[in-house]
From TrEMBL:
The record marks 140 as: Important for catalytic activity. PROSITE patterns: 3HCDH. This is 3-hydroxybutyryl-CoA dehydrogenase. Pathway: Lipid metabolism; butanoate metabolism. GO terms for molecular function: 3-hydroxybutyryl-CoA dehydrogenase activity; NAD+ binding. One of its GO terms (biological process) is fatty acid metabolic process. The keyword rRNA-binding does not apply. SUPFAM superfamilies: 6-phosphogluconate dehydrogenase C-terminal domain-like, NAD(P)-binding Rossmann-fold domains. Residues 6-183 form the 3-hydroxyacyl-CoA dehydrogenase NAD binding domain. PANTHER family: 3-HYDROXYACYL-COA DEHYDROGENASE FAMILY PROTEIN, 3-HYDROXYBUTYRYL-COA DEHYDROGENASE. Its EC number is 1.1.1.157.
Length: 283
């Protein structure tokens, strides 16, 4: 299947990162959001990151200009009629996603693949909101998207082999490494990562060590680039809680119970870096 034009829905941190790597790899990209302010913010961030690449000599000015010219801002979902692939990166909420997929299914041409960047929600259930479940697939990028090599590719129950192969080839064209995973809560990445983060929060909650000590142990002892509490702040504590709840509900096993301290921080609005305060404070 030939993919030339992509629409990324959601111009937040993940969506703008995905749009950036797609544009740099030569795709024409509609960066869609309901908020023009969010699109402007996303495009400004992309511009800044590409300028940094030019300063470091990793990209020429002409390559940067070409990538930016391939990005088309969009606040009209009807633009999905012009694309071969949609990558959805909106809020992690099943109602929002199923409504969006049903709408995209109406607008996009029959050949268009509908991919979701969900970090833990079932692909099969999202696919069921459309009349083309064979063309729905999970394409889970990691944060920060321009840096992280992995894309988890998740087949729903009905995903066609041809669709999987197309997404795998696009992932390689984006200079990322595809890894195939089946449709279970949290896939592999968050099924393994989030319980570790949750356990680190329990260790803090129970007074086993300070937040700095917990992070230091995992950084220096296990060679993780960031300690788990720093990483939780980076991902967003609301996202961490949401994923833990998805695991807890999906498996029905108490080992995935979110730590009460995590719930408390989210209730306080201390969501990590994006709100200036989480386990740590940020400027
Ligand atoms: N966006 C884009 N690029 C970024 C970036 C960002 N937010 N932060 C850093 N970079 C780039 C830098 O520009 C630099 O690029 P060059 O090599 O081209 O110069 C490179 O990344 C390294 O950056 P730094 O030297 O400044 O910092 P670092 O070596 O400490 O790396 C990091 C920063 C890559 C974020 C590193 O700390 C890291 O890998 N952290 C862990 C990230 C992680 O685990 N992500 C997965 C989260 S889970 C997830 O995403 C899934 C989910 O569903 C929740």
């Amino acid at each position: 299947m030939d993919v030339k034009t992509i629409m990324v829905v959601g111009a937040g941190q993940m969506g703008s990162g995905i749009a950036q790597v797609c544009a740099v790899s030569g795709y024409d990209v509609y960066l869609h959001d309901i908020s023009q302010t969010q699109i402007d913010k996303g495009l400004a961030h992309i511009e800044k990151l590409l300028s940094r690449q030019v300063e470091k000599g990793k990209m020429t000015d002409a390559e940067k200009a070409a990538a930016l010219s391939r990005l088309i801002p969009s606040t009209n979902l009807q633009n999905a009629a012009k694309v071969d692939l949609v990558i959805e990166a909106v809020v992690e909420n099943m109602d929002v996603k199923t409504k969006l997929f049903a709408e995209l299914d109406q607008i996009a041409p029959p050949h268009t693949i509908l991919a979701t960047n969900t970090s833990s929600l079932p692909i099969t259930e999202i696919a069921a909101a459309t009349k083309r479940p064979e063309k729905v697939i999970g394409m889970h990028f990691m944060n920060p998207v321009p840096v992280m090599k992995l894309v988890e590719i998740i087949r729903g129950l009905a995903t066609a082999d041809e669709v999987y192969e197309t997404i795998e080839a696009i992932t390689r064209k984006l200079n990322k490494v595809p890894v195939e995973v089946n449709d279970f809560p949290g896939f592999i990445s968050n099924r393994v990562l989030m319980p570790m983060i949750n356990e680190a929060i329990y260790a803090l909650y129970e007074g086993v060590a300070t937040k700095e000590a917990i992070d230091e142990v995992m950084k220096l002892g296990m060679n993780h680039p960031m300690g788990p509490l720093t990483l939780a702040d980076f991902i967003g504590l609301d996202t961490c809680l949401y994923i833990m709840e998805t695991l807890h509900e999906g498996f029905g096993d108490d080992k995935y119970r979110p730590c009460p301290l995590l719930r408390k921080y989210v209730k306080a609005g201390w969501l990590g870096r994006k709100t200036g305060r989480g386990f740590y404070t940020y400027e």
